[in-house]
Amino acid sequence: MADYGERSLAGGSAGEDPRDAGGWEPDDSTAPWADVGPVVFDPAAGTHVGGSRGSSDPDRTAGGPDRERPRQAREGPIWREESELVARTFVQPMGYLRARGMMARHLLLLTGEPGSGKRTLALHLMQDQHVENVIAVDGVDNLMRLSIRRHTGYVIDGAASDGLAGYPPHELELLRQRLTERDSVLLVTCAVSARTPATWAPWRVHCQRPDPVQVLRSHLAHHLDRDWERRHLDLVDEDIVELVRTDGRPDHAASVACDLAEVARGRFTRNDVLSALRDRDHTAVEDWLREHPSYADWSFMIAAAVFEGHDYGVVTERATALRGLLTRRLPRSDDDAQDTWPPQPRAARLRSIHAVLDEDDVIRGRVRYRLDRVRFDRPHWGAAVRRHVWSGYPDLCDVLVDWLAQTPRRPAEVHRDAARAVGGFIAAGRGHQPLAPVGRWAREGGAKRPLAVLALRAAAQDPVVATQVRHLLELWSRERTRSDLRLTAALAYPGLASVYPGRTLSDLLKLARTGEQTVAFAARDSVVELCRDGMPAQAILELLESWEQAGAAAELTARLVWDDPSERILTSEVFEAVVRRVIDDSAGYAVVLRLFTALLATTETDPELATCLRSLFTALFRPGRGHGLERLAFDLTRLAHEGLPSGAVIDIAVLEPAIDAFEEPPAQPIGEHAHGT
After folding, report:
1. Is-contact 138 75, C-beta < 8 A?
2. Residue 379: is the preceding peptide bond cis (ω within 30°)?
3. What average pLDDT is seen over the chain?
4. Percentage of the chain exceeding pLDDT 70
5. 273 and 290 share a domain?
6. How buried is 81 (Cβ within 10 angstroms: 0-12 exposed, 13-18 middle, 19+ buried)?
7. Burial of 142 (0-12, 13-18, 19+ CB in 10 A)
8. Does residue 59 contact residue 457 with C-beta atoms inside 8 Å?
9. H or E stretch including 206?
């Protein structure tokens, strides 16, 4: 195990994290499968109770992302974060008023140049018409076969122009009538010229790009505040305006706004940002590599670019490992005479790669450590280095993949960022069979499987590579003879949800119903993770209501509720329906009873949860109704009299509906009652 040079401030050992004595745990998103037990809901193994959801972003590296981008679903419900960003930063393009007026036709084709903001315009038009349920549709071969639900908005982004041209006018009119009858809307975007396709002329609006300077200002208001100009008078000067107008793309203007927000916060200087905006990074990286030809310098720069934000000891250890691989795999004729280790003192080496150290104190296992985190002082420098060495030096690709595969499994966050770097390399490089290394790791198993899981999650963030990841995971999910591949698929699917949320959920639910406990457990954890990332739990519960496997439905329902026992879930009609559905099964009943017992143990300290549970029990045990929950009423009444096994105090008021239902005499038919008298 490599020593990463952490210095204890509390007398603990300055090496491995004290929590590392257990099994592998790369991060919250994949930890539960490593030590899988019986597939039984266990509240003690849950993450938390009280309604707060995890806020960790599994696609965030330790050094932070180059810029935050909302997830853009190509299939399934539109993510809330994308809708909110559109609502806050939308700038009207030319053609907006005409498009808004044509929304009454329920069918609309938005055309324009690539990157002109057609998807943003489509989502804003949905918001303007108060269409709350918006779904992205992908891979529709025939629009006439599209299943249309009532009061729903559909967005088909990036449709092929030749495919659209094949619809005759009468079919488009029939499609419009179907949408009108169901009070639904279909918006299609297509990157074509203003003259095609001709058959869509009655429904087409050609849109120009919005003013990039206005886009820049709207995003600055989003990142800073509405009064940012008064505090930063010279933040947007003539040079910035000229660069933004020259490029013209709205997404580029939004990216510039992110950089300028960092300037306003004091992280970068204006000259650094201007240099990066003028696309000098590629040349600067190549010049740096030529000026520092030794493998020692290359290794240090690449290690810092991959593990930015980690301790200096992590970077130097990883650089040493990379230098060794480069020396063995790519020997030089001159034996690299200049390559001495280390060639310079620490401060000089950091200056040479445009990096600084940020001191930080962290607590791990009740022990405080002081870290010297390596961070670049130039915007996007780490991303530029990673992108350049991967695309500009093909001989390094296999070496870099093998180097990242050999990353020590502890600390867990280092191993995690190595896997994400592989995914980032795959997404950036694309090419033929980009997922081949990850496929080998998944088949080898062992320590490389977690690496494959996180690499696939990171690679799936690219919309092009995401389609390849989807097909690969679907193939592994159907692999009958390799349960390890099905397990890998169950763990990797959440990364695909940013692009294909609907298909990801349906595939995970299939795996959650499998008879293999390990795969089913991992799939259920992944479904819970989707809810933490914004997928509505009610939509999942509606699907669980129709499951024939009552025990599996109860397990997943309990996981969802335990992770977020909020009012919108506990008091929803769909949750009540699932409870009634699963308690007829012995395994399902046991899970439901354990869930209620665990939730009751927290009602004394959580008044809101107590109120939600009472409302739920009131709905379940409505008087005068053959509720069929006599056994549940008896067990809850017994808990009220005997107390919880843990000794926690129960709020009896919460259980009053169940107690009343247990003590209520069974209803008798009128005729039988009359005969008895």
Report:
1. yes
2. no
3. 78
4. 82
5. no
6. middle
7. exposed
8. yes
9. strand 204-206
Same structural domain, 397 and 424: no
Cβ atoms of 106 and 176 within 8 Å: the answer is yes
Q: Which residues contact 107 (CB under 8 A, 6 or more apart)?
A: 172, 175, 176, 179, 185, 186, 203
Distance CA 49, CA 596 (A): 12
Angle (CA) 507-510-513 rounded to 5° is 150
Which residue, 206, 238, 267, sits at the end of a domain?
Answer: 206
At residue 7, φ and ψ (nearest 5 deg) are: -110, 120
The stretch 453-466 carries a mean pLDDT of 85
Same domain, 318 and 401: yes
Beta carbons of 442 and 452 less than 8 angstroms apart: yes
pLDDT classification of 33: cutoffs 50, 70, 90: very low
Residue 480 lies in a domain: yes
List the alpha helices (DSSP H) in 393-462.
Answer: 395-405, 412-429, 436-444, 448-459
Give the pLDDT score at 483: 85
The phi and psi torsions of 23 (rounded to 5 degrees) equal: -80, 180
The DSSP call for residue 145 is: G
Q: Identify the pLDDT of residue 45.
A: 44
Report yes or no: 165 and 197 within 8 Å, Cβ to Cβ. Answer: yes
pTM for the full model? 0.72
- Number of helical H runs and strand E runs in the chain: 32, 9
168: helix, coil or strand? Answer: coil
Q: Is residue 122 helix, strand or coil?
A: helix
| Cα 220-221-222 angle, rounded to 5 deg | 85
**409 vs 519, which has greater pLDDT?**
519
Nearest C-alpha neighbor of 133 from the set 650, 539, 605, 626: 539
- When divided into structural domains, the chain yields a total of 4
CB 34 within 8 A of CB 24: yes
Within 10 angstroms of residue 479's Cβ, the number of other Cβ atoms is 13
Instruction: Kindly report the three-state secondary structure assignment for every residue of 453-489.
Output: HHHHHHHCCCHHHHHHHHHHHHHHHCCCCCHHHHHHH
Query: Per-residue pLDDT tens for 317-357?
Result: 999 999 989 888 887 655 454 555 555 788 888 888 889 88
Confidence of residue 125 (pLDDT cuts 50, 70, 90): very high
The mean pLDDT value for 380-398 works out to 84
CA atoms within 13 A on the CB side of 531: 26
Domain that holds residue 461: 1-52+415-535
Please indicate, yes or no, whether residues 307 and 376 belong to a single structural domain of this protein: yes
First to last CA, the chain: 84
Q: Which residues contact 513 (CB under 8 A, 6 or more apart)?
A: 520, 547, 549, 552
423 and 524 share one domain? yes
CB-side neighbour CA atoms (13 Å) of 74: 17
Question: Residue 30 — pLDDT band, cuts 50, 70, 90?
Answer: very low
Q: What residues does 111 pair with on adjacent strands?
A: 190, 206
Would residue 659 count as lying in a domain?
A: no
**Helix, strand, or coil here: 85?**
helix
Domain annotation covers residue 161: yes
What pLDDT, on a 0 to 100 scale, did the predictor assign at position 186?
Answer: 93
CA atoms of 30 and 24, how far apart (whole Å): 10
Question: Is residue 595 in some structural domain?
Answer: no
**Domain end (from 518, 535, 552):** 535
Q: Dig out the tokens for 451 from the structure.
A: 């690496």
